[in-house]
Amino acid sequence: MRKPSALIAWKMLVLSLPKGIAAFVIIVAGLSASLPLSVFLIGLPLLAATLVFCRSIMLGEMRYVTAWLQRKEYPEASASPEPTAVEQQGWRAWLVSVLKDGRSYRSILFGILQLPVGIAAFTFAIVLPITALAVLLSPAAYEVSMRLFDFNLFASDWRFDELFGWDMTSAQRSWVAGGVGLAFVLLLPLLMRGLGRLYAAWILSVAGPEPVSRPANPQEAYNEERFPFAMENHEIGAFHAERSIPPVS
Prior knowledge:
This protein is mainly alpha-helical. It has helices spanning 6-37, 43-69, 85-89, 91-100, 102-136, 138-148, 160-164, 170-207, 218-226, 233-242.
């Protein structure tokens, strides 16, 4: 099975910081403005709008990490919902639906904690590749420092002599460091995937599971559980009639 893309994981970690900043600013500014005004009722629509904006960022990030875990490059566009009774009743029903949605309040947690999580993810995504590349280029850095600046970067043995059992020159130490950097570079995809899975676990845990829609009719729910191919009622009757099996009451 194809593994999740390490490059997309790196992009996801880098973009987590601007998304975290946006969510933090929205939730802090929105709560600071809406909660004091809630006593005058004008703060309730402002609070609901704040929760909706922050929830949209959280759900968008959830779709992004879900697509990455499913080995897709881009998340699938969510289908536009059909007009519901809530939308037809106006802003009051919309306000009630937002305030009753559990994800609206989980978006507060997301907006506050996504900033430190994004800082950590961004730091690892930037520092690890730069460090691996810098160590990989140790031989080139040694030659440049010696020829242009007459400075020996590898004057200290760094315990390399004890490790390999002989007195090494500075050039040899630089090549040993370059070998370590090469191993580090080869491990970068694995590290990026591991960090991506940790970040995806955080997003999925705070966003919560997708709401599962169940049939309103109990008989339809029973038919769906008993017949996984979702046959209609008349198809179930024909199925029993063909085999002379009494239908299940």
